[in-house]
Amino acid sequence: MNKTELVEKIAAGAGLSKVDAKKALDATVAAIKDALIAGDKIALVGFGTFSVNERPAREGINPATKEKITIAAKKVAKFKAGAELADAIK
Question: How confident is the model at residue 52 (pLDDT cuts 50, 70, 90)?
């Protein structure tokens, strides 16, 4: 499902116009993104939890040259499905 299809589903499910549904989706995604940038954790009960994890720097190997390289530390977004969502998928 792409963004356009998701907007159509939201519009149909909530009785909104597609324009209003797109605005609501964009605002939701922006709020989640801003919270993650600030280092906050977002918990949507029944759906799941969004958080930021930090990966430490580590050594790797360049597969082409077999040279050892240093892979820089970075932050990654993480999503953990809630119990209701996990049960619905089974």
Answer: very high
The sheet carrying 42-44 orders its strands as: 42-44, 48-55, 74-81
Residue 42's pLDDT band (cuts 50, 70, 90): very high
Record the pTM: 0.79
Q: Report the distance separating Cα 82 and Cα 63, nearest Å.
A: 37
Q: What is the DSSP letter of 73?
A: P
Question: Cα separations (Å) of 21 from 24, 27, 47?
Answer: 5, 10, 19
Q: Which residues contact 61 (CB under 8 A, 6 or more apart)?
A: 67, 68, 69
Average pLDDT, rounded, for the chain: 95
